[in-house]
Each structure stands twice: as structure tokens, then as C-alpha cells.
Amino acid sequence: MSEGLYRLTKAERLCGKAANGLFAGSKSGFAFPYRYIYKTRPATEEDKAQVSVLFVVPKRNIKRAVGRNLLKRRTREAYRLQKTKIVEKATQKGLHIDIGLIYSTKEILDFSPIKDAVRGILEKISGRL
């Protein structure tokens, strides 16, 4: 295993204009407690990462910033620990994948159900490639 395999670098985070492009013409689904959207395209040499991800916890659902930050941290950790399979699949197929994970319940869940949901989402996306 390479040393940076379980890191979540800046290049792997989706932000700016790329995040706006994710919402137009993407595929979506729901796996409690997340609504997920993703978009694939052929990889280019300019891409610094095979998979880019966006984490969203709406203020409408979780009012306090402390709770929103906690859920984003838990989601990032769950993704970071399980991203290897989807990154390998994207590399094999020569694709770049943008993923958005949108938390969509009003209760703050523990790490275990979040980890299970993220695993399921990543399996569904990699199965559809």
C-alpha cells in the first residue's frame, strides 16, 4: 500500500466552479441518511485526483454549526477509510468521478450508520461505472 492511500488531499475535495458543475447533468440516488449525486467523465492529465468529493450538511436540517461540522467530520472520515475501491475502479476505467454527499436528516447519527451508508453509496456508484 502506498503511504498516501488513506489521506484526503485538497485535490480530492470538490470546491468552486467544479462543485457547481456537479449539480448540472448528474446522476443521483438516496441511501439513508444521504442523498448522493455523481458525475463521471474521461480522466485528463490535468486531473490531480481520480475521485473528487463534496460534503454538504444543510443548515435547514442541522441548525447549529457544531453539529454540522461534526457530521461533515464523520462523513469525511467514513469516506477516507473506504475510498480505495472506487479510486481503483476509476483508475482502471480511465474515468474521473465527482461525488456529492448531502446529509438529509434532522438527527445527528453516530459514526457507524454513517460509515455503512457511505460504504453502500460507494458500492452503488462503482457498480454503475
Write a structural description.
- The protein has one domain (10-127): Ribosomal Protein S5, domain 2, CATH 3.30.230.10.
- The mean pLDDT is 91.
- Helix content is 40%, strand content 22%.
- It is globular and about 40 Å long.
- The protein has a four-stranded mixed beta sheet with strand order 1-2-4-3.
- It has helices at residues 17-22, 65-82, 84-93, 111-127; strands at 27-31, 34-42, 51-56, 95-103.
- The chain starts with 16 loop residues before the first helix and ends with a helix.
- Helix 2 (65-82) packs across helix 4 and helix 3 (84-93) runs parallel beside helix 4 (111-127).
- The chain has four helices and four strands, in the order H-E-E-E-H-H-E-H.
- It has 129 residues and is an alpha+beta fold.
> Major β-sheet, in short?
4 strands, mixed
| Intertermini distance | 24 Å
The coarse silhouette is globular
Taking pLDDT < 50 over at least 5 consecutive residues as the criterion, the unreliable ranges are none
Structural class: alpha+beta
Helix content: 25-40%
Strand content: 15-25%
Q: How many helical elements?
A: 4
CATH architecture: 2-Layer Sandwich
Oligomer: single chain
Radius of gyration (CA) equals: 14 Å
Largest beta sheet: strand ordering: 1-2-4-3
Question: How many beta-strand elements?
Answer: 4
CATH topology: Ribosomal Protein S5, domain 2
Question: CATH class, please?
Answer: Alpha Beta
The domain count comes to 1
| SSE topology string | HEEEHHEH
Average pLDDT for all residues: 91
